[in-house]
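Every protein is a chain of amino acids, and every chain bends into a shape of its own. Below is the pair of lines this work produces for a single protein:
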Amino acid sequence: GFKRLFFDFSLWCTIACLKKIVTSVKWLAVMFAIVFVLMVVAFVAISVNLIVKYFKYPAASELKLLTKSQQFPIFSFCNENPLKRSLVDTDPAFAEIAKMIKQFDDYELKKITKDDYGIGGTKMKMQRMTRAKIMLRLMMNKLSEADRRRVGYNFTELVSQCTFAGKTCTSADFTSFLHPDYGVCYSFITDRVISRPGADTNLRMLLTANQDSPRFTLFDFLPTTESATM
């Protein structure tokens, strides 16, 4: 009957204490039975508690944002056009550059007269542009620092608006330097320290690339400058 079935099951099963209950003397069987009942009660209590907690969907989170003061990174910008065309064409100090630019213009307009700089050595426009840029870089390198700065762009010509950490910044917050390709460039002074992330400590700038020329008939960009960008 059921008693015999339970006895056989208890002998070969691996449930804790169950085999000891049916094979031990009476007093020891009682002890194992008590332990077994306590284990079952504990198992049921723990299971019920876990199920109840699961369906309550409890959540506990603690968010900590740890920030350390750090130096604001270096930010530099340049106008892609290194020299103002209106000044290059009229200032004797830039006569050689003006001559090279004129020959490049004439070649592109198929008004070829001379080719003193090897610009017309290829029929491919990109290669002619590359050659003209190389010659411009070499000629700019021969100029004095004062001349290069004189025909470059000053801070107010490039920057329309500037704020750092919510405060207006001016040219005094930047240092200028000469780039071999882009002429006069500017770097944000890097001794600023920020202590927290976010928009409140950002550097925000509105930069303007102005192509207008005092001569009205021409852009004030060199023909070797491919786009009005910073």
